[in-house]
Design brief:
Layout: H1 11-16, H2 19-29, E1 33-38, H3 46-75, H4 88-119, E2 123-127, H5 137-154, H6 160-186, E3 214-215, E4 231-237, E5 250-254, E6 275-279, E7 291-293, E8 298-300, E9 307-309, E10 315-318, E11 330-332, E12 338-340
Helix pairs in contact: 2-5, 3-4, 3-6, 4-6
Length: 370
Amino acid sequence: MSTDQHAVPGEAELARMSPEEKAAAGMAADHVELEEYGPVAVHGSPADKRNERSVAMWFLLAGLLGLLFAVAFIWWPHEYVPAYEEGQLAYALYTPIIGATMGGAILCFGIGVVQMARKIFAHEVAIQQRHIGMSTEFDRQSLAAQVMDTVDKAGLKRRGMIKGSLALAGGALGLVAAIPILGALIKNPWAERADSPLWVTPWAPLADGTKIRLTQIDGTPVRPEDLAAGSMATVFPGVPGGSKASDAAVMLFRVRSDTVIRIRDGQQGFQFGDYYAYSKICTHVGCPVSLYEQQTGRVLCPCHQSQFNLYEGMFPVFGPATRPLPQLPIELDDEGYFVAARDFVEAVGPGFWENGKFPAWYSEPKEATG
């Protein structure tokens, strides 16, 4: 703002001025000229009430969609259900529903704000000269007064419908922002103790002791002869939904017979001959590790370029990952197919505070042995 050729009120005078007087003084000092000014509709007239209902409708819709988002996020079925099974449709609709309700809440709130500016606030066309530099204290107070004067003249304090719907919409949008964080605190991840999801994967033997086969993505079980020397294949647990489980994908390697592999302490015998199985889930942020360079034995995570060395027990050798990929103990069943001898002995994927503290897992780091 520029206050040239206009007397700037002192602090004492500013304290005595009303918001309307500050607004008028600020406009005069700032060389603002109103070319057009006037209410959109006479307050209390049918047109004014119609405009108020129109604005309130958008805020109410925003609030309703925000509440629906919270309900769907917490209570809608989100656990994976295979195709053609009961409940699969509800599972498939989970992401579209939370996306549509959250997006709809934000969209309706934005439309409501635009409609309020067009239909409730007074219409004006103002011309002002630009200025350089920081505004004075008088300029800042007069600007704040102009904003409050605009709100007063729009009659928002008297419009209970708009105030209520705006409060509902604002609260619902705040809930939309907070619920993904708070929602994770509702369920206790340790409620099932040793069987809690962070400790157990679909590779764990069934209740009757049946061990889980290593299968291709189409469910075909894998035999040793299916892999050529020096190759790698991605396998999944042969259980319903195994190929979709976020912690289940495993890389099965067949190394050449003359290759020297360092075994991590406590994991001797996890391999079957020249076959080694490691989690495909990167220990950095959980991306799928997939690029295998046979000559160096390095496996690359394409997300953040973490590299793990197969020949060194899958220890990280480059990038942000700090923990090795967990190894899956494997053996053959009576029919000659690969099975998981048991579940992983360490948590799969990114680290978390309790990782390594639960008695079901080794508490000491697994250092490579020569």
